[in-house]
Specification:
Elements: E1 48-54, E2 61-67, E3 72-77, E4 80-85, E5 90-95, E6 101-107, E7 112-117, E8 122-127, E9 133-138, E10 144-150, E11 155-160, E12 165-170, E13 175-181, E14 186-191, E15 196-201, E16 206-211, E17 217-222, E18 229-235, E19 240-245, E20 249-254, E21 260-265, E22 270-276, E23 281-286, E24 290-298, E25 301-309, E26 317-320, E27 325-330, E28 356-361
Antiparallel strand pairs: 1-28, 2-3, 3-4, 4-5, 6-7, 7-8, 8-9, 10-11, 11-12, 12-13, 14-15, 15-16, 16-17, 18-19, 19-20, 20-21, 22-23, 23-24, 24-25, 26-27, 27-28
Length: about 350
C-alpha cells in the first residue's frame, strides 16, 4: 500500500480488517451471525461516520488491521504502530521502533504479531497479548509493504515494493525460508486459508496466485479493464476476489480461474478494499473522501448501494465483522511544498496532532 499522503488523483487489511455495537445488515442491536455464515438478508444499512478517535502525533500512515477478538485496531503511523481500543475509543499501547511501517499481520494461533518496516527492510515480531517486542528479522529485499500471515503454511509473507518479490518467513522460527519473484510491483494480498495466496501487481494490472507451501506461482491473471490495482479483498466461500483499481473500478474476479465476474464503479483515489462476509458487503476506501459500499447479491451479481462521505485522505480500511463497523484514518492537510525536479508533484503537508480514526456504522 502507499504511505499517506499522496496525490489523491493517483492514489491502508489486511489484513486490513472491534467497535461499538452496531449491526449493518439487520439494524442496530442485532446479533451477529455465527462465524463463517451470512447474516439474514435485510435492508441495506445507512452508514455514516459515527465517531472520530483522536490519535495525534506526526508523520504519515498506511494500513489498518482489526483484531475483533480483543477490540483492538492496529494503526500504522510513521515509526510506530498505535493500538486503539475501539470499545472505549482509547489508545491501549503502541509498538515502537518500526521505521516506515506499512502494515501488521496477526498470528493468533501462536500469539504473535508482525510488522513490515519499509525504511530498514525488516520485520518486527511482537507478543500479541502484551505488545512486547520478541524479535526482528532482516529481509533480503527492499521496502516490505503489505504483510500477512497464512495459517495453512504457518508462514508470514511480506510483499516488497523495492524488489518486486515476496518473502516467506517461518512464523515460529523467525527465519526467512524463501523468496518469490512476482514480475512486478506487489500491492495488497490475501490468503484463502487453504494454502493459496493472491497478490495484486500494480504496474502490470494483474493478480498472481501463489502456493504458500511450495512458494511457487500458480497463475497470473489480467485485471483489465481495471488499472493499477491497490486494495484486495476475498470472499473465500464463493471464490471471489475484489481488486480496487486506481481508474475508479472495482474488479470482481473468480479466484479459481481468473474470470472477470463484474466491473463496478467506485470513488477516486482508492487504496483499500475490505469484505464483510457476514453481511455480504464489499467496501473501498477512497482518498477523495468517500467509502464505496457494494452488496454481493449473488456470487455473480453485485450492486452499489451507498457512497458514504468520509474525509479527504481516508484511503485505508479495516472492517470488524462481529459488529459491522468500518474504520478508516486520515488527518488535516496543509499546503504542499514547492515542486522540485525530483518531486514535481509533492505531497501535501500533514498538520501535526490531527491524525484520527473515523468509525463508520449505521
Amino acid at each position: 500500500m502507499k504511505r499517506m499522503p499522496r496525490s489523491w488523483s493517483l492514489v491502508v487489511s489486511g489484513m486490513l480488517i472491534a467497535g461499538a455495537p452496531a449491526a449493518l445488515a439487520s439494524g442496530a442491536g442485532a446479533a451477529p451471525a455465527p462465524a463463517g455464515t451470512r447474516a439474514a438478508p435485510g435492508k441495506t444499512p445507512d452508514l455514516k461516520v459515527l465517531r472520530r478517535i483522536p490519535i495525534g502525533g506526526e508523520g504519515g500512515w498506511d494500513c489498518l488491521t482489526m483484531d475483533a477478538a480483543s477490540h483492538r485496531l492496529f494503526v500504522t503511523h510513521g515509526t510506530r504502530v498505535v493500538v486503539v481500543d475501539v470499545a472505549t475509543d482509547s489508545i491501549r499501547g503502541e509498538i515502537p521502533d518500526t521505521p516506515g511501517v506499512h502494515a501488521v499481520a496477526l498470528a493468533h494461533d501462536i500469539g504473535r504479531g508482525f510488522t513490515s518496516n519499509g525504511r530498514d527492510s525488516s520485520v518486527s515480531v511482537f507478543d500479541l497479548a502484551t505488545l512486547a517486542p520478541v524479535a526482528r528479522i532482516k529481509l533480503p529485499a527492499r521496502n516490505p509493504d503489505i504483510i500477512l500471515y497464512d495459517p495453512a503454511s504457518g508462514r508470514v509473507f511480506t510483499f516488497n515494493g523495492g524488489s518486486a518479490t515476496a518473502t516467506a518467513i517461518d512464523a515460529r522460527a523467525d527465519t526467512v525460508v524463501g523468496s518469490i519473484p512476482l514480475g512486478g510491483k506487489p500491492e495488497f494480498a490475501v490468503v484463502d486459508g487453504a494454502g493459496l495466496l493472491f497478490v495484486n501487481i500494480e504496474d502490470s494490472s494483474a493478480v498472481v496466485q501463489l502456493d504458500t507451501r511450495s512458494l511457487k506461482p500458480m497463475a497470473r491473471w489480467s485485471l483489465a479493464p481495471g488499472e493499477e490495482p491497490t486494495g484486495l479483498a476475498l470472499d473465500a466461500a464463493h471464490h471471489r476476489l475484489f481488486a480496487a483499481c486506481s481508474n475508479k473500478k472495482l474488479i470482481v474476479m473468480d479466484s479459481q480461474n481468473g474470470r472477470i465476474v463484474s466491473d463496478i464503479p467506485i470513488g477516486d483515489g482508492v487504496d483499500g478494499a475490505a469484505f464483510d462476509a457476514r453481511r455480504g458487503l464489499v467496501f473501498t476506501s477512497n482518498g477523495e473522501g468517500s467509502l464505496s459500499v457494494i452488496r454481493e447479491e449473488t456470487p455473480d451479481r453485485f450492486t452499489p448501494v451507498q457512497t458514504v462521505t468520509t474525509e479527504r485522505g481516508a484511503r485505508t480500511i479495516a472492517v470488524d465483522e462481529s459488529t459491522g463497523m468500518v474504520y478508516v484514518v486520515t488527518a488535516d492537510f496543509g499546503p504542499a511544498p514547492a515542486p522540485t525536479p525530483d518531486r514535481p508533484h509533492p505531497r501535501p503537508s500533514i498538520v501535526p496532532g490531527t491524525f484520527r480514526v473515523l468509525a463508520i456504522g449505521s
